[in-house]
Amino acid sequence: MVEWLLLLLPVAAASGWLAGKRSAEAANRNSHSQLNSAYFAGLNYLLNEQPDKAIDTLLDVLEVDSDTIEPHLALGNLFRRRGEVGRAIRVHQNLVERPYLNNSQREQALLELGLDYMRAGMLDRAESLFLEALKRKSHISIALHQLLDIYQQEKDWHQAIAIAQKLHEESGEATESMIAHFYCELAEQRWAQKQIMEATQFIKQALASDWRCVRATLLQARLAMEQGDYKMAIVCLRRVESQDSDYLSEILKPLSECYQCLGRQGKFFSWLSEALARHPGSTPLILARAAYLQRQGEQEKSRRFLIEQLRRHPSVEGLQQLLALGMPKDIKAVLEPWSLIEEVTRHLLKAKSNYVCCFCGFSGKYCYWQCPSCKRWGTVKPFIVDI
Ligand SMILES: [Zn+2]
Description:
Shape: elongated
Number of strands: 3
CATH superfamily of one domain: Tetratricopeptide repeat domain
Structural class: mainly alpha
Bound molecules: zinc ion
Membrane topology: Single-pass membrane protein
Largest sheet: 3 strands, antiparallel
Subcellular location: Cell inner membrane
Oligomer: single chain
Order of helices and strands: HHHHHHHHHHHHHHHHHHHEEE
CATH architecture of one domain: Alpha Horseshoe
Organism: Nitrosococcus wardiae
GO molecular function, one term: iron ion binding
CATH topology of one domain: Serine Threonine Protein Phosphatase 5, Tetratricopeptide repeat
Family: Belongs to the LapB family.
Radius of gyration: 32 Å
Distance between the termini: 50 Å
């Protein structure tokens, strides 16, 4: 009930403002009292939990002239925010049908109706309203964002690309990376339908939109591998390093496979060593290099390499791989992993959070009695890693 009263507050304010404005006009004294009595009738329906009757009454009373647009919009938007989309649509629809709206009022009302449709999942109707808005050049940025949302939900990637390009032209927003992903979606679709030429073309367009698109490069490499073009695949995979070195872990397996198919594993090893020099401490590279040595039967070399790297760049993954190499023959060498375990765990504990909020997941070094993130009391507790 309190919620309903809160909902009515803006309407009441608008009606009060209206009443004030009208009372200044002596000629309109009549409609002022009419407005108030109808407004209280509407309020009465709300108090009796009859929201639909209340809407009808309020729509009637607010249907006076273009001065009453604001209360309409306020009422409709509040319904939408409360998740009562059907009612929001009724209010906004009623508004749109009024003949007395000026252009900007009608555009605002159509925009709100479009947002109602979005909320209700009626994407077709929302789409046509937002396309209309684009045509009229009103609320362009909101309309473009909503259309972008619609086309992504519908997986209509061509339309999504067109809208993202328009959004970039209109607002300067960076959309290249998004567009590249849309082209990748198209490429994957075509590939699944065995339309390799088209898939290749879309991958090229993805890279033309955003040369840093790792996804496009990985697709290109996989496609080349499938066609047995390992040299081409290697060129693509190695490109990832300059696109975004955070994705190095994604290329190691296919890269090793390509070199193996060409019978040039040695080349893979030299590339690993060079890449490691460019990205010192990169755990995936360290692991791949150690695994390579192990595959060549060089257990001791692999172990020494891991120990040397782990000293400088401790990682759980590296330690695990070292222990998985098994017990060394030389008993003195057993002591090396032992001291490394101590080093790695000490490092891990230093990086770990000591306290975690069991409500929102906030983590930190100190015991806050009130969680700084979710503001709840007594939810931040000591955190111990249990396995
Ligand atoms: Zn919290």
